[in-house]
Amino acid sequence: MKPLEIRNIRIGEGIPKICVPIVGKTKEEILGEAGKLSEVPADIAEWRADWYEDVFDVEKVKEVLKELRAILNETPLLFTIRTAKEGGEKDITPEMYAMLNSEAAKTKDADLIDVEAFLDADLVPGLIEEIHRCHGKVIASNHDFEKTPKKDEIVRRLCAMQEAGADILKIAVMPQSRGDVMTLMEATVEMHEKYADRPIVSMSMGGIGGISRICGEMSGSAMTFGTAGKASAPGQMNARDLSKILKVLHENM
User: Fold this and answer.
1) CA separation (Å) from 236 to 115, 140, 213?
2) CB within 8 A of 64, min separation 6: which ones?
3) How do residues 167-195 score in pLDDT, each as one tens digit?
4) CA-to-CA distance for 52 and 60, rounded, in angstroms?
5) Any idea what the Cα angle at residue 124 is, between residues 167 and 224, rounded to 5°?
6) What is the pLDDT of residues 14-41, one digit of tens each?
7) Would you name the residues annotated as active-site residues?
C-alpha cells in the first residue's frame, strides 16, 4: 500500500493519523474551534460544514475555508458535508452536495474532500474527477448508523471506493455486539492485506466500538478521529487521550 502525502504528513504510514473535527453553527464558532487545534495533537483538521448555518451559501463557505486555511497553516484540512442519511445535520440534494464540494475543491484551501461513495451513482464519479482536476484528494466514505454489514459486504464497499478512484477509503459502521466490532476489524485486515493499494480508514462507532479507533496500526486503518470539543460521531475519544494510547501501542508493537 502506498501512503498518501498531504502537506507535512504521510497517511498510511506509522501511527494512525488523528483527525479532529471542527463543528460550529456560526463562522465565529468555527474559526474559534480551529484556533484551539494548536493545543491538541491534531494531524488533520476536518471542517464538518454541514453544521454551518450558512452551508448552502457557497460564497460564505468559501470565505470560511479561506480563513480556516490561514488559521491552520500547514495542518491538512478535510472538507466534509455529511448528509442527513449518513448522520449529518442537513438534508441536501445530490446536486447541491456536488456543487458545494466542487466549489470547495476549486478554492484549493481544502486538501481533502469527503465524498459519500454511494450518494448518487450518476454524480459521484464526476465529482471525484472534478476534485482531482483541482488537485485535491478524495476520501470516499460510507456510514451505516443502523448496523454492521457482513465482512464480505464491508470489503466490497471499500473495493468499490478504490475502483472509483478515491485516494482514501473510509467506512464507519454501528455495532450491535462485540462480534460486530470484530467483523469490522477483520474486514479491515482483509482489505489491507489483500486488496488495498491506498490508505483505508475504518471504525466501529459507539462505546463498544472504541477499540477499533485505537488499533488501526494493527488492523490497517490509517486514520482515526478524536475530539477537541464537540464530537461529530458517536464514540469519538478525546484527541489527547487518543494520542497517548496510539503512541503506547506503537512503542510496544
Assistant:
1) 21, 20, 8
2) 27, 30, 31, 47, 49, 52
3) 999 999 999 999 999 999 999 999 999 99
4) 10
5) 40
6) 999 999 999 999 999 999 999 999 999 9
7) 143, 170
Distance CA 186, CA 140 (A): 20
Cα angle 23, 78, 70 (rounded to 5 degrees) comes to 80
- pLDDT for residue 163: 98
Cell of 218: 494493527
Q: Cell for 233? A: 460521531
Look up the pTM and report it: 0.95
State the Cα–Cα distance between residues 160 and 144, nearest whole angstrom.
Answer: 16
Predicted local distance difference test score (pLDDT) of residue 237: 86
Check residue 232 and give its pLDDT. Answer: 57
Q: How far is the CA of 72 from the CAs of 31, 77, 110, 175, in angstroms?
A: 10, 8, 11, 34
| DSSP structure string for 110-149 | -SEEEEETTS-TTTHHHHHHHHHHTT-EEEEEEEESS---
What pLDDT was estimated at residue 228? 84
